[in-house]
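Example 4.3 (complexes with small molecules)
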Amino acid sequence: MKPVKVGLLGLGTVGGGTVNVLQRNAEEIARRAGRGIIISHAAARDINKPRICRTDGIELTENPNGVVTDPDVSIVVELIGGDTLARELVLKAIANGKHVVTANKALIAKHGNEIFSAAQKKGVMVAFEAAVAGGIPIIKAIREGLAGNKIEWLAGIINGTGNFILTEMRDKQRDFDSVLSEAQRLGYAEADPTFDVEGIDAAHKLTILASIAFGIPLQFEKAYTEGISKITREDVDYATELGYSIKHLGVTRRTEKGIELRVHPTLIPKRRLIANVDGVMNAVLVKGDAVGSTLYYGAGAGAEATASAVVADIVDVARVLTTDPGNRVPHLAFQPESLSNVPILPIDEIETSYYLRITASDETGVLANITSILADNDISIDSMLQKEHGKDNTATIIIVTHTTIEKYMNNALEKIHALDVVDGDVVRIRLEHLDAD
Ligand code: HSE
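Answer. The structure with L-homoserine bound is encoded below.
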């Protein structure tokens, strides 16, 4: 069989890694795909820039439109990032009958509904394994491996840069900015690193995971997003003392009222495997009704880890190029006409536990006041810790609550803030037990 010709858009970190993996493992990959896979064309902004890969034998161009319309190219691999030019090129590739592989989570989270509908009409595939959790085959696992389950919830550390920063700050007392610079040098961070530290990148990925887990359209605009930039050493240390790790987590859960879709720093009991996922590693914990809890772990960013997922998608597409489109795995795991319109819940309606850090005067009745406000709002306390400040007659009170609804907690926090004896803002970090039942 003739080799499949691939046109690459982007020759940066992931593009270069993809060329290297495809060249190095060409023989092994051909044995799997049943035919050779060659990169025949590649577009880059500056074709004379030094690369991490060899480009001999590849027709290089600075015009990506030429690649997506070239009659020789069967699969277009989009690795340029962003969601404006990438969207245009992907739609053009589809209109020209090309199959598409992309690592672009922003593109899929924001424009996936439009892109999949165009692909469906044209009978081509759009594969996006590398868009979520780098090298971990989490899309395949949920979409195919767990197809017999009703997924109840999933929770993941799905931004490598953020996890790398939190780990280095905790273990080596390094400051935020220097770890972020290192993540950029290692090719982990987004072009705009606020996407990593403010949770936008994780929200893109969680949006995709929720859609394939629950069979709902992509709804990035409804995801609640909070980053790691306000996490302090003090809270990391108190969390450790109480037996928790603070991780930046994406959580999506099916409830009777709707679907929770939220990204925020989260305390997780240290005994959970996922609480011990450090550095650039990602992990996704998926709870299915039949299988129970399953955990997927691996490198969440980096040239070859991400290329591993890109190449797997190319192989998948190469294998099914000639099959009837109706028999392929649907883009969002469920048949397009069977997607559900169950609502995404506003953050006020989600259910979780909380870690609170309150600075207050160390005097009679303060603790009683705070705990009665919590009780009035139906919030039950799980554990508590009080630390004397010593010099200014204030104390730090740490409270861990049982599960409650976020709006009850907002109400309680408003009243606690209003107490004269409370000094400054109350720190509130959500807490998830992530138990199997
Ligand atoms: N910036 C992303 C991360 C790259 O750090 O996880 C992989 O999507």
